[in-house]
Every structure is written in structure tokens, then in C-alpha cells.
Design brief:
Helix content is about 45%, strand content about 10%. It is α/β, with parallel strands linked by helices. It has two domains: about 5-20 and about 95-220, HAD superfamily/HAD-like (Rossmann fold, 3-Layer(aba) Sandwich), CATH 3.40.50.1000; about 20-95, DNA polymerase, domain 1 (Orthogonal Bundle). Helix 1 (about 20-30) runs antiparallel to helix 4 (about 80-90), helix 2 packs across helix 3 and helix 3 (about 60-75) packs across helix 4 (about 80-90).
């Protein structure tokens, strides 16, 4: 795959920023569940976060607090709102995966980079600064009024950029949040960054696979 798009669009958390939600969960609940139960707790917390973003938009702190509250209920733990807030407050402190800044900057000097993230505006810009790369635009679920994997989020981004699905290359480590929806919307050129936090997507969704962002420049002829 060598394709020179008008824009390269990215998921941020997990793909570029080291998404450390599981670490916060371990810190809070390690003394309340045995290790094997805690691992399952973290997995189910991820599932509830996905479920929470499938409906109408609401602030991300509400997404996280509802998801962790439902997870606690499932495991017989007492939910505390201050614990839910810790997840939200942690997000803007996270930095990039080690492989991100250099190749992302190299690509960004030649092709405009865009982020579409399931974030609040007050969170995302701290994370983007830590990526140390030039970004043309940064769009959030708050801007779009919808979270990924809803198509509305992608439609908002395309409308803002004034381009068609065929004009972009979308890059994500998440088949469920990004690649499947991008496929449904007609985004032909997609890259899966296999960071190991989701099962492999069905090849029918049509994507190139790389292990980290070091593999991206070659895909766009750089």
C-alpha cells in the first residue's frame, strides 16, 4: 500500500497517546479484587465505555463515571464519584507511545495530519502537545456531537475538511471504534496499528497493518 492522501486522520488515545485507563483502574481497585477478577474488571470496564458512547452525546466524564459505576455494580463493589473523576482527570496527563513523535513529525511535514478523538476539548490539546508533531486540525466528539464508532463523528470530520472518504487515510489501533465505521462510511484507505489491545479485525474491512507508527511513512511513500 502506497497512497498519498489529502489528509491522514488519526484516532488519538491508544493509537498515538498511550491509553492508560487500565492503570488507573488497577490503582483504585487493586485492594478490592483478586488479580484474576481485577483483570476481568478492567476488560468489562472497556466494554461498558464502548456501550456508553453508542447513544446521544454526553460529556466524557459522564461516560467514564457511568461505565465504571456499571462495572462496580457487576462486581459487587461500591462506586464512588471521586473515583470516577480520577479516570477523567488522568486523561490529559498521558503522553505518546515512544514510537510516535519522530515518524509522525516526518509525515506531518509532508501531509496534513488530523485527529478525530473521543475526547472533550479541555482534555485533548494537552495530549496533542505531547505528541510533538504538527497537526492541521483536531476534532473531538464534543465538536461532532457524537462519539466514535458512530458514523456521525466521521461525517463531521469529513464535512469540516471538505473532502470525500476516498481522499483520506485513516489510522487507528481500534477496529471497533474506528476501522469498522470507516469502512462502512466508504473510507477505503485505512491502517490498523496493531498495539495488541483489541482482537484482530476481519480482513474484509480492508486495512494495511503496521506494528507502530514507524511503519506509517512507507505507506505514504516517505
Amino acid at each position: 500500500m502506497i497512497f498519498r492522501p489529502k489528509y491522514i486522520t488519526f484516532d488519538c488515545y491508544g493509537t498515538l497517546t498511550n491509553f492508560r485507563m487500565h492503570e488507573v483502574a488497577y490503582q483504585i481497585y487493586a485492594g478490592q479484587l483478586p488479580p484474576e477478577r481485577l483483570n476481568q474488571f478492567v476488560k468489562e470496564f472497556g466494554a461498558y465505555r464502548l456501550d456508553e458512547v453508542m447513544g446521544d452525546w454526553k460529556p466524557y466524564d459522564q461516560v467514564l463515571k457511568s461505565a465504571i459505576s456499571r462495572t462496580c455494580k457487576r462486581h459487587g463493589l461500591t462506586y464512588r464519584d471521586e473515583d470516577g473523576q480520577k479516570f477523567y482527570d488522568a486523561v490529559p496527563t498521558w503522553g505518546p507511545h515512544a514510537d510516535v513523535p519522530e515518524p509522525l513529525t516526518r509525515v506531518g511535514n509532508k501531509i496534513p495530519l488530523v485527529i478525530l478523538s473521543n475526547a472533550m476539548n479541555e482534555q485533548i490539546h494537552s495530549n496533542v502537545r505531547k505528541l510533538e508533531a504538527p497537526f492541521h486540525k483536531v476534532y473531538t466528539a464534543q465538536d461532532a456531537g457524537a462519539y466514535k464508532p458512530r458514523l456521525q463523528a466521521f461525517e463531521y470530520m469529513l464535512d469540516q475538511l471538505g473532502c470525500s472518504p476516498e481522499d483520506i487515510l485513516h489510522v487507528s489501533s481500534s477496529p471497533r471504534y474506528d476501522l469498522m465505521s470507516a469502512h462502512d462510511l466508504g473510507i477505503v484507505n485505512k491502517v490498523w496499528v496493531n498495539r495488541g489491545h483489541e482482537p484482530r479485525a476481519n480482513a474484509a474491512y480492508g486495512f494495511a497493518e503496521i506494528n507502530d507508527i514507524n511503519g506509517l511513512p512507507a505507506l505514504v511513500g516517505l
